[in-house]
Design a protein that fits this description.
The protein is mainly alpha-helical. The chain has one domain: Na+/H+ antiporter like fold (Up-down Bundle), CATH 1.20.1530.20. 81% of the residues lie in helices and 0% in strands. The chain has helices at 2-20, 26-50, 56-86, 94-102, 106-146, 153-164, 167-181, 189-200, 202-217, 219-222, 226-247, 255-265, 273-280, 284-312. Helix 4 runs parallel beside helix 14 and helix 5 (106-146) runs antiparallel to helix 6 (153-164). It is globular. The protein starts with a helix and ends with a helix.
């Protein structure tokens, strides 16, 4: 396990070094993140899920995992609102803080890190978070940020299309269909091997991206953002801590399920949220700072949660 921790941090340091040398500037890093999100991670999801022995029980656990993550994000967001009120923050920031602090970066960071620590079966359960994050952000999240109720049937169809046409969600569905129907048997092995090789690039490139982001953002300047740091520490300590305590009382025998869920609760805020806030709401700069802070802190909380899960479960 310590070798896996080393791999995690070593790849981040590589990204930081490349940024400082000028090889990974802001524009290059942005393009690389788009490539990872729209090419490498979908390839990882399809090749991983399609080749696993998915049965009715695993599918049920997958759906429960997705529902549990949605509930966790909604409840923690409400807790964040109470804390923001206690700290007398600007009321206009409440919706942004709710969604930014409670969101989980299950796709870009969760899947690659799960691959390192828990392998292909862990990726299957973490991929439930890809579905839950998109449902959470594009249905609940947009309504919260815009401070409005869910619209009628037309608006619901529009939202459903946005969720289902997301490349990661489509990849989860494709992988599940291939696995459940056995149709993966008729897919040429060369195609599966190609997707696997492509998906293998998701982990190193994602972690290199995080390192380059740290180098490009100017870590010292973030220390001036006291509100962002406060809410980031709240998220990265309290959210996994509450999950760890709750999991002790849930009668699930499979340690892997509990471990993956705990790891998901230690993930940073989703990178897409500041863009959503800029489009629909108020406080995008603070939202962006929280995403950066939680990303940096997660480099400690994620390995810690894996270690704690190994002890508890």
């Amino acid at each position: 396990m310590y070798g896996q921790f080393f791999l995690l941090f070593a790849l981040i340091i590589v990204g930081y070094y490349c940024n400082k040398k000028g090889w990974l500037n802001r524009e290059t890093n942005k393009n690389m993140s788009g490539m990872v999100m729209h090419v490498m991670i979908p390839a990882m999801l399809i090749s991983t899920i399609a080749t696993l022995p998915v049965n009715d029980r695993i599918l049920l656990v997958f759906l429960i995992m997705a529902a549990a993550q949605i509930v966790a994000m909604i409840l923690f967001g409400l807790l964040v609102r109470l804390y923001a009120r206690f700290r007398k923050q600007d009321k206009r920031l409440y919706p942004m803080l709710d969604i930014t602090v409670a969101s989980l970066n299950t796709g870009f960071l969760g899947l690659p890190v799960t691959q390192i620590f828990f392998g292909s079966e862990g990726v299957l359960y973490m991929s439930a978070g890809v579905l839950s994050l998109n449902l959470y952000l594009w249905i609940y999240g947009v309504c919260v940020i815009e401070n409005k109720k869910i619209g009628g049937a037309k608006e619901a169809v529009k939202t459903a299309k946005k969720v289902l046409l997301n490349p990661n969600c489509m990849s989860v569905v494709i992988g599940m269909v291939l696995a459940l129907t056995g149709a993966v048997a008729v897919v040429p092995m060369a195609a599966i091997s190609f997707l696997k090789k492509l998906g293998d690039l998701a982990t190193p490139l994602s972690l290199i991206y995080i390192g380059a982001l740290a180098g490009d953002s100017g870590i010292s300047s973030l220390f001036k953002e006291k509100v962002a740091l406060e809410f980031s520490v709240l998220k990265m300590i309290l959210m996994p801590a509450l999950a760890a305590v709750l999991l002790l009382f849930i009668p699930v025998d499979l340690a892997l399920i509990k471990s993956v869920f705990l790891l998901s609760m230690a993930l940073p805020s989703a990178i897409v949220v500041p863009m959503m806030v800029e489009q629909y709401g108020y406080g995008e700069k603070l939202s962006s700072d929280i995403v950066l802070w939680t990303t940096f802190i997660s480099m400690l909380t994620m390995p810690a949660c894996v270690w704690i899960a190994g002890i508890l479960y």
